[in-house]
Write a structure and sequence with these properties.
Layout: E1 2-6, E2 9-14, H1 16-24, E3 33-36, E4 43-44, H2 75-84, H3 89-94, H4 97-109, H5 115-128
């Protein structure tokens, strides 16, 4: 005989056939707490023998959204800095200080003649870099 919890009330005893009927009618779900003799504690139905033979839902076509790290830097800002400033400023933003310093110094020490190769380098980074210097993916 089984007992189940619904809206804070413990209901039962009911037999296993009734439990399966409640599951089929969606009166109770796989997360419903249940108990029967021999169990130490109330347990979610999905962790009991009642879950055996239950249909497994198909995988979702829409993957669950990934949580965004609040410390993640914005990729759009990184790309815009690389495209429009192109002197390594985008690398300072992402924490790649040495790389940014090299690009900035080459640009300044060549009186902006080196700006074109540094801009191309920045465009390549804008297309390929996906995380900041700490390994945190851009949002």
């Amino acid at each position: 005989m089984w007992y189940y919890e619904q809206h804070g009330n413990r209901i039962g005893p009911v037999d296993e056939a009734t439990m399966r009927s409640l599951i089929a009618n969606r009166t109770i779900s796989i997360d419903t707490l249940v108990w029967t003799n021999g169990m130490a504690n109330w347990t979610p139905l999905q962790q009991t023998q009642l879950a055996a033979g239950l249909p497994v839902p198909p995988p979702s076509l829409n993957p669950a959204p990934q949580a965004v790290n609040p410390q993640a830097k914005d990729r759009v800002i990184y790309v815009l800095l690389a495209i429009f400033l192109g002197m390594g400023i985008h690398n300072f933003y992402a924490g790649y200080t040495t790389r940014g310093l090299i690009q900035l110094l080459v640009t300044l020490l060549t009186c902006f003649i080196g700006a074109i190769p540094m801009w191309i380098w920045g465009i390549i980074e804008a297309c390929t870099v996906e995380q900041d210097a700490n390994g945190v993916r851009f949002k």
